[in-house]
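User: Predict the structure for this protein chain, please.
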Amino acid sequence: MSNFHERMIAAPAARVGALLDTLASADDRFWPHEKWFALRLDRPLAVGARRDDGPRPQTVSSYTPGRQIRFEFNAPRNGFHEFVLEEAGDGGCLLRHTLRAKMTAQTALTWFLAIRPVHDALIEDLFDKVEGQVSDVAHPQVWSGRVKWLRQWLGMS
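Assistant: Here is the predicted structure, written as structure tokens:
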């Protein structure tokens, strides 16, 4: 399974990268914890930091400050998700989130029916949060009825 999200942001990569570097800190200005669960690590953001809460324990496997963070799933070790920030033309940047994982038939069904819509909404909320701190959000996300229902069913609202 592969899942990609990206957004052009009308701000320099260094400015957006400063937000990325606050991930999981007490002053987290990157993760949309206002609408979603908080992302917590067992230590400050660095290679080896672990996230043990949530359905998939994961470890920071690579981190380039201001540019990239990759989390590898711990058990089973079958995938990763990462944020990458790239310079773009006109003084802007591209923020990308990639998720890749091997799935069984059962996990694939769960992903497509329940997890994917919620995951996609979370990532778009993250992009809205980041973009809103450095420029105007041209098209803020509006949750679908399905996402609202799934959040309620999953105990997130």
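The chain has a mean pLDDT of 93.
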